[in-house]
Structures
1.
Amino acid sequence: MFDVVQNQGEKRNRNLKPRKNNFSFRISFNVKKVLIWGGVILLAIFLIGYYLYKNYYSNYNYIKEDSSQYLVYTLDTSTNNQNMHNEIPYINIDSEDARLVNQTIQQYAESFLKNKNNLMVYDSQLNGEVLSILLRMSDYSAGYSFPDVSFHTYNFDLNDQTLMTDEELLSLFDVTEDEVKQKIELQFQKYYQQEVKKGFFASQECNYDCFLNWRGVQNYNYMDSVYYYVENGGLVAYRPFTIYSVYGEEEFFDEESYAFSITK
């Protein structure tokens, strides 16, 4: 009888063993599913964002007229009588300002290049949110071997696709027009000193005023026909001037002489 009671006690003890908590298991399993799917969704969002950035935003495709083209591309080319190649740019921005600039460039090129000796080329750079376009025109209509060079620039703020004013550009680089004038004047003075040193003329023969007169700089007007261009993160002022004279100064100057570095 004692054995029977003992066996019954053992059965009761076995029945008192803790059972598995199926509810807790289901919660744990659901949490894992949520975490896995959450990770998948985050990965998908990241991949979509990366694709949009790489193929849409980083290339500024969302502001372009033609997403298959660069922000600035060559619309038309031709060859002048000296076998030099003209290049007409097109600003590939879907904005009213860009359309007006493109129209202006094309109309000017049509008139300027009627003289088959003339040359028109361009350069462009993207620095941050500023897109800069530089036009260089070489006018051979006077019949000299060295042309009259002129420039025009356009600077676009890609945040709103508008054409920037000179004041906005100077403010962006925290410089004033007086500081620009000082930089240009200093560079002209250096040109003069270098020419004297290299023997193009003696200072007694042609003083600084004489030098400026040959450059076409009248009454110390250093800011005449100055155009701004953003290049390699810095502000550059392009100021045209005459390079030839009876002293053979055309051998001293080159294409970079027209570029006056304002900020580094």
2.
Amino acid sequence: MSTGKIFALLTAAVLLFSCTALAEQEAPKVQTGIYTIKNKTGENVTEVKITDNVTGETNEFPFTENDVLDGEGSLVLYFDIPEGENGEHRLTLSYKTESGREETFGTLSIEEVAIDLLAADAMTGSTPIAFSMPAPEKAGTYTFYNKTGEVVRFINLIDNEDGAAVRMAFNDGFAPDETYTMSYGVSPERENVTLTLQFVTESGKIGTFSTLKIEEAPITLLDVDSVSGATPLSFTAPY
């Protein structure tokens, strides 16, 4: 092999290594706060917002116009910050009710926690929320893989019997090829209930699957326009 060919191969190898290292550097690690929020106010909640006290970045509900968090409804909000900055970041949780009440809690940490939004007469002092312990339940756990080719804005799990919904939203979107895990709990005697899964992408495409069981399962979300048949997902992991 000539000296020129050897030099060309070595140059290509160096460039490939440099590009790979740069790509790895450009994927910052994050810490994720997961907040399961339940409406205990006694009325509809029209807005829930989590705001980073440092950057001003937000993740908020409602996801669509005229959407409300009704009595006993719940939602899940995710919030990412750069890894290692947990001690420097606090979040503000705020909410508004249909009657016009506006409440804030300004020292939320980056953690996984269940939060009840309280009625005015249930507050302890000026604190409008309570950190709650979940009741014993049968839980379905779903690991979502985004293979839609675009950002997913939110995911809903809706109980087909009583209409209760858990909504999952992301402050910076659920990007293509990322993975998120979500749980849905029911009382043990209702373990045979089915759920409707709904996801909405950044371009407005809507995927729906109406017979999801309470189980542990991988779910790959697919491009709605490219699937054959009516099922916009697969119950297998993509890798």
3.
Amino acid sequence: MAQSMIIFVQDMIKSLAYLIFSAGVAAILAVYTCVVVPEPVLTTLYTVGGVIFSVGMSIAITPKTDGVTNTENRRGIRKSYQVVRNSFMYLFAIDTLIFIAAEVLRKTKLESFMGITCALYVLISIVYFTFNFIELQKLGNDIEEQILKEKNIKAS
């Protein structure tokens, strides 16, 4: 239980660091440039992030533990998938909140800042989702290969 809380806090700190980075860059750009992220760009980024999130979640909620006979290994695999699943949910929740804030604050003095913050944070999330999506696929393949090796050894 304590381990889960530590991982939760680490994920929240990571999400907060991404948000602070995005807001810092957005503040600089909003002050020194006339950049305003158009609504269709934010909507497209959020949609892409949502699609990648959902694909990653479908992999993260179905760990490939069939055939893993060692209980300790099976628990470790499931825990790894849970960590990724939880971080996906935190990032996408923040994506959603920032997207909503950016939409609500359109046509205000904060429009440029919130639009840039949203665009940057969603882009960071997309990169994170994509990287972890690929890593989860690789982990699933590695697990399958290890199971096949163990079956071949037992058959010999």
4.
Amino acid sequence: MPNGLKIEKIESNGAVLTAGTDYTQTSTGAAISADWLGRLPRGSYKLTLTLSDGKTTAIAIAVTNSSVSENVQNTSFDRYYKSEKYADVHTRLSGANTSEDIRDVVLGLSSIDYTFDSSTRSLILPRGVLAQLRAGSYTISVELKNGKTEAFTLTVSDSAPTGESWAVEEYNTFSPSEPKFTLPLTRTSVRTVTVQNNGVTEALNAGSDYTISGQTLTLKKSALERYRKDGTAVVFSADLADGTAYALVIDYVKRK
């Protein structure tokens, strides 16, 4: 879904889906609830999405048989970056031996990033991608090139303490782009941005290590490469003039 737009409503064959019950809006589109999908009898369906700019887009769904529900698994993920359950999600697929057997992996109505471990025949969903989801239940559909679909239910929790402010973004060292964080800067400003490096707190330089435009803070490649730790997360801290602090979590990954 284009950046900045919201879903006003979703209709299916004339019936309007209930927001929060039948579907949940995500950062990339919408997650259709497993309960709603499970009530559909065999047949073809069209979902019509009305966006906040007035335009509509349509998605076709074909309900064929029970082959999907037979393969449904359940897995969980905690989006709080300090949790023990903040980890990549692994789920074994019965119909895929290599990544070449997978046509697409879909959450709701949008494709998501993934990797595949051929030794265990497991689909791997990166934690930095899943951290963008709100707490709730989601259906992940794996569309195989043989025409079959395997699905599993992902339950996302959030064990963050009340009052703690944080956000996670990936930094893909294979194809790096500078991550952006939205901060509540309407009535305050960023005082400092710091990071712990070998037990020492180091301050980043405004302009060269990070920039601010409106309410968006962008961490620059110079800082991200200087504190780079492949395969792990590095926490930067944005300290605001009103005394609040935001943890800016960078998950370093290498993914084609």
